[in-house]
Amino acid sequence: IQRKRGETGSFALMGYEQPGSPIAEAHRSLCTTLVFSTPSGLPRSLAVTSATIGEGKSTTVVNLGIQFARAGKKVLLIDADLRNPSLHHILELSNEVGLTNLLTGDHARSVNIAKPTQIPNLFAIPSGPMAPNPAELLASFRMGDLLVMASEKFDHVLVDCPPVMGLADALILGHLCDRTLFSIDVSSTRRDQVLAACRRLRRARVQIIGVILTKVRLHQRGTYGYYHDSSYYGESRLLSGS
């Protein structure tokens, strides 16, 4: 879900451009749920992933960041989907310098490459130039150092991860972050894909904090349409099939 330059009313930025919209309200509710999700409150670093591509994880990352920023928190978004990045498109940022520059040693001070966005209190580190070895870069000590430093400088760090199936990237990032939020496109993702992805995450000792359902079909004023919905289920409930 990419925002074209000059486009207004983008779905991915609707939480900012239309604060009274259903997607904004859904993510405000999700933020509240996440704050009370652990005894110590919202984890400082939160990875967001999905089973397959196109399940709304990047939109979730951006809209969660928007809602926390609107609440006065200093938020950092990290585009760690090095194979198919999108945050720089959505937020209209240059992608000439970003995460891959840091992970290959081009920039010593990692958090200094965080770029301000058009949204107050919201910063982002784009993916940077394409790299031939994404999994190796994400597993490097520099990625761990970045998350530690970012958690000290920002109130919330949200990491846009690649999908789980077929790649090791999300498993690496989920293990490095405090918790992981799992995005599911209920209109197209198969149950077996979701269960397989969750099992992969659990085998990697990734702590799934919950699930966000996207593209939920809701009846509203006599018509049907797809909306982003923050229905929230814990991992045990998801895996038990309830």
**Mean pLDDT, as a whole number?**
82
Q: Major sheet, described briefly?
A: 8 strands, mixed
Question: Strand order within the widest sheet?
Answer: 3-4-2-5-1-6-7-10
**What would the principal axes of the Cα set say about the shape?**
globular
* Secondary-structure element string: HHEHEHHEEHHEHEHEEEEH
Q: How many β-strand stretches?
A: 10
What's the total helix number? 10
Percent of residues in helices: 25-40%
Structure description:
Helix 2 packs across helix 3. The protein is of the alpha/beta class and 242 residues long. The N terminus and C terminus are likely disordered. The protein is 36% helix and 20% strand. It is globular, with a radius of gyration of 17 Å. The strands form 2 sheets. An 8-stranded mixed sheet has the order 3-4-2-5-1-6-7-10, with helices on both faces. A two-stranded antiparallel sheet has the order 8-9. The chain starts with 13 loop residues before the first helix and ends with a helix.
